[in-house]
Amino acid sequence: MGSSICGDIDARPHHVVLFPFMSKGHIIPILHLKRLLLHRRLAVTIFTTQANHAFITESLNDTSASILDLSFSHNVPNIPAGIESTEKLPSISLFHSFANTTKVMQSNFERALQTLPHVSFMVSDAFLWWTLESASKFNIPRLVFNGMSYYSLSISRAVASDRLLFGAELDDELITVTPFPWIRVTRNDFEPPFTEPEPQGLKFEFTMKAITATKNSYGIIFNSFNELEPLFVDFWNRKYIPKAWSVGPLCLAEPPKVRNEACYNYKPIWVQWLDKKLEQRNSVLYIAFGSQTQISPAQLKEIAIGLEESKVNFLWVIRKSESEISDDKFEERVKERGILVREWVDQREILMHESVKGFLSHCGWNSVLESICAGVPILAWPMVAEQPLNARMVVEEIKVGLRVETCNGSVRGFVEWEGLEKMVKELMEEEKGKEVRKKSKEVAQMAKKTMEEAGSSKCTLDLLVDEICGKKT
Ligand code: UDP
């Protein structure tokens, strides 16, 4: 077990353990939460594995927290040894096998807990279901960190219980979600296990373990805010356990890097490029599909043609592990108005940039929140997990986005260049785009307020800390 202690555990009256799942999309919001807890004079210890240590350290910035690494030597068929985060998996289909095997860390985790000063509470990712057992052994209240919206989690649960209790099959046709008659979904809105005919599979088993551990925990933390989805917050609180606490949007807990003229040379070239586009104010489409989506070469090609034909300015982040665009003249042809980036970017910095006017996104929940907070409307193109439901929420409920046109007409799937070009233009130049842009600015104001003094998410986190730690923090 490795450690780097830069905190002042003994000087702070209460101590919290944070344990994010090993995916960037899960680590990032928990690190924002860490900042809020430190502001409330709590000492924080973050558990992770060695391969994720550097990413966490970098994000600690000026704040103090301790990091403890647990060894994670798994033995999962098809996953090479040494892979410690989901972004590195050879295929996203191995996600649940990987998540399931995190239990190998349990005994080391418990040994480490014994060495720590009194832990007031633990915030552990929903996927690390086994930490409930550890928390119970040490009498530590466990709060589950949930990286989904109330909307997506409630609909998934409602549909799952219909299916399990009443044997309702999900169809390719739209069906109504029982408690929300205005919401209609199809099989394509869900990942297995809820669409698997056989509920005995590994994914099903894993999901049920995570749900059961969540139910038996002290509470669940949502990276969302009550004003964004009041009906679904209310539904959750009436229908499900444990008690929910809305403390987001956590991306507002710390500002993105602010760079001024004096440090111009340190600006990444893509930010310099966005600066140059300021003269055509608010003109750039930002394109990124999160930290683990794998786009096929055929799909990359369609995106490239769609962007070229749309004639809009664009900044496109392509993951390093992704294939390359087969047309090697593409970048040259579009260089006046487009830039491709193959690095890890500060996405919030890009979204907050005044040049950015729209976001073509896979609708990972963090990306949705970051876009909402920046007041940038979304062109929704969900791929896996709960992204189709997030996309529905963005387009149909909050109305801060439009949806791409897929070939199969459903919420996700292959997109041909013509459909992409059409929707890019609609978002960037036409009336529907204007409407969702206006709504995005309004929702951004709401998001900002909720994290300010007397805002609902700020007060909720205060109440949570007071409830567990007493009022002496
Ligand atoms: N992200 C980033 N730079 C990148 C790629 C991703 O900062 O180059 C961040 C992004 O801002 C978000 C997270 O990684 O906070 C991705 O989470 P999300 O839920 O959007 O998608 P996931 O990666 O989990 O599919």
Automatic annotation (TrEMBL):
SUPFAM superfamilies: UDP-Glycosyltransferase/glycogen phosphorylase. It comes from the Eukaryota. Gene3D superfamilies: Glycogen Phosphorylase B. Pfam families: UDPGT. Its EC number is 2.4.1.-. Keywords: Glycosyltransferase, Transferase. InterPro entries: UDP_glucos_trans, UDP_glycos_trans_CS. It is an enzyme of class 2 (transferase). This is Glycosyltransferase. GO terms for molecular function: UDP-glucosyltransferase activity. Belongs to the UDP-glycosyltransferase family.
